[in-house]
Amino acid sequence: MAAALLGGASVSTPVSADELDGRIDEIVAEGTSQSEVMLLAHELMDGIGGRLTNSPALHRAQGWAADKFAGWGLTNIHTEPFLFGPGWSFDNAYAQMIEPRHVDMTMIPVAWTPGTAEPIRAEIVVAPMSKPEHFDEWRGKLSGKIVLVSLPGTGDEPTRPAFRRLESKDIAERDRFEEETYDPDEANRRLERVRNPMLLDEFLAAEGALAWVKKSYRDGKLVHGSGYTHWPDLQPSLPAFELAAEDYRRLARLAKTGTPPTIEVYSDARFHDEDLEAENLFAEIPGTDRSAGYVMAGAHFDSWVAGDGAVDNGAGSVAIMEAARILSQLGVRPKRTIRFALWSGEEQGLHGSLAYVRAHLADRAAVPGDLIEDRYGWRYRWPLEKKPGHDDLKAYFNIDNGSGRLRGIYAEGNLAAARLLKSWLSPFAPLGAEQVVTSDTSGTDHVYMQAVGAPAFQFVQDPLDYGSRLHHTSADTLDHMRPEDMRQMSVVLAGMLYQAAMSDEELPRVPFPAEPNRTDPFAYDDPDED
Amino acid sequence: MAAALLGGASVSTPVSADELDGRIDEIVAEGTSQSEVMLLAHELMDGIGGRLTNSPALHRAQGWAADKFAGWGLTNIHTEPFLFGPGWSFDNAYAQMIEPRHVDMTMIPVAWTPGTAEPIRAEIVVAPMSKPEHFDEWRGKLSGKIVLVSLPGTGDEPTRPAFRRLESKDIAERDRFEEETYDPDEANRRLERVRNPMLLDEFLAAEGALAWVKKSYRDGKLVHGSGYTHWPDLQPSLPAFELAAEDYRRLARLAKTGTPPTIEVYSDARFHDEDLEAENLFAEIPGTDRSAGYVMAGAHFDSWVAGDGAVDNGAGSVAIMEAARILSQLGVRPKRTIRFALWSGEEQGLHGSLAYVRAHLADRAAVPGDLIEDRYGWRYRWPLEKKPGHDDLKAYFNIDNGSGRLRGIYAEGNLAAARLLKSWLSPFAPLGAEQVVTSDTSGTDHVYMQAVGAPAFQFVQDPLDYGSRLHHTSADTLDHMRPEDMRQMSVVLAGMLYQAAMSDEELPRVPFPAEPNRTDPFAYDDPDED
Question: Of the candidates A252, A271, A290, which is a domain's last residue?
């Protein structure tokens, strides 16, 4: 029905202001009174649950999403693979203190560490170590032990409310243009973060330790289970567990004052190595003008598995899907193709969106034989070379800041784009989304697009309890998604996509990146620094 | 050594202001630089853990505390029993969703419900019911099911900081004299709260249900496990579990939109019915003037068992013990006996302290054959009769508001006592404890003492994260006790006890209670009201 309204729109006729307003009204109506976003969320989070990259659960979710896209009439539904490493999953695991008394501890196996076959029972040793420089102190002391590798620390004192919405002034504070800093050492830090757990595993295995245990980085009996040893041809030897901070510190205190406790750990974790490639999933509403390029919205579909991957990032994923449903249901025929992307491998380092960038936008030389260096050092290698499709991407909107409503958009340092973004956002001021701020954001799938000069943006979202207790935790379930927020998010996203796809004017682009100068042109190398 | 300093103090010589100041200084020094309170906390919380009334763990803890008291040279260390019902404990339990997918749910068996012998696997039915009026709707629909009896509700939005200290103005707001309300219906509400779970158990068992499940009343994967079916001659039939709110609501959502999930529950819970009497534990520093009466400090030693019973109320318990240690270490010879009380049965309804009141202070007629009515209706029966020891109790200080430092004291409606309390508290102003406020407080072991006109008080404490995430929860572990706060608490308590025991002046007492008039002398009974 709605499709007939726009049936006469042709390739070259600009949409009138009245038509645009009418379409926005329809989007709001469809996305609020006819919303399906919470039912999508329910099927994904409750029905399928946590979705670790390349795991059976993520594959199930991808099949489910592809079916939904197909049912709504989207086109060009397809996946694009990238080398990742095996999947990993577990069903049953536990950690119990056996001596000096029985305690069933709150735990999760660390992702991409092996299961235990049989339960492992052993005395613990508290040996805080995070990098090779720490290993020597513990050499010869770990054989037959379960090794607690985190510093226990003390309980936290959370003095900010767990649940928070932004005031206008909070948003305005984000209107700060900052020079991009260029720090090649950042690449080394990233590499170490990924490689040190492997070196730890090697060291502990060589020492005859039986398993290792780390402390949750949040108090309140929440666990996360994040781990990074998923690379092809890599097989860590030792089972590893993350314990709730309270359970970890109890063990550490007992070990400090008396006989080290004996604990028993078990995990049926397994690797899925039948296919080492993970996939991004795409679907489209085709544009009427093939020369006009495309606009895209994306969210990572993969999650950690302590919870159901709800606000990180089932929320963003079902908002993307609901925006697709709304626009498809209204029968829009946009000038530019609207592409919907559900990324994978985000949680392990934005691998899926980086693969997309390298395939479609711009790439640097690969590092043969060292996939880790190839991935984490990618941003710091020069030259960068444009792919033919680079200029076709006219706008990218990423959602990955929880389930809070959209309050505005980050121009991400692209000052020239702010005016147009402001105009597209203006219809949604009554829904609470109106501020355009300059700051740039990091840590999710728009980053590598920005790094190659594509116009890629994130929204400002109400934080709710994302950072305080949900991000990657066992409490990240649908319970903490707000239906009104999710509906608003879907509606605003659909509206932004539609306007970006119809706009006569393209978003201004930043210059294609060249190797940056040193920040301080007068600096000498310090011989004492690595 | 310190004992020698006071060796010359005799029965009738008032302590001089200088002597008193010196003693306070010693208390502060001993309780800070020589503190043992956190080591006591460690032995109790980490070493023994949660202490359900009349359970083996509480018995171990009582033996441990008695040994400590004896080691410090306290006297008259003894227990006083009261009829309670069996103990209860469990080591292993789990709840898993089996269909539509595997989820290991966060749970705890409900206290004083039986174990399962074998794992129970069945489909759930969501049948919210809390009292007999709700049962009819579900008759005939529960056979062979695991019944979810709570309304699922939606996720919480905590907009106050989890961790909080009081400003002076927060404390001043508690300086409110309020008339005591007398509401006999309160007795009925209490009775129903205790009896309804038994009626629920009977109904569900008669219907052929296999087990029941309730929802945690806190979000964030915290569980509590509180239950009240501990009475002698009572044996509930069905195993019961409390699920984390997130896990409970996931089940409920799935049941609402599709085939009800199948879950499996297991618990090795067992009753300990070799002795149906629970015990309070006492220790004393004897007074030099037997006619001067005694002062007392108390905390409940029992806890729930989801965590280690740390801030509720291991904290109060070890503060009581540390105050005893400090005063004993200093060799004080107080005029009045100082009695230290570690109550039991508090969590199930202040049973231990009520038993003390009935034995030593004042009592009402018993209700033969109905222990529940006898206990929960006690406060509302008349006449009340004084026991010979009633006037001997000159001051009672209760600690049961978490591990936050003492910031002042509630005069608990006893306006005449405020001046003396203020004077005793004044040395501790530099430690942050100085305000005396009029409001009364409820819900713990001083309540029944107040109810018989004894001068019984609680301190104002910094709340920290007691109410937000620790009270009765699985996160109630030593991690969330602040060492500086615990040392301050022990010092101030020791100082208050010492001054109360030495004071020439006694705390003013409220009149011995008589049956109150109706609040509204002109009210008629409403025939529509029960």
Answer: A271
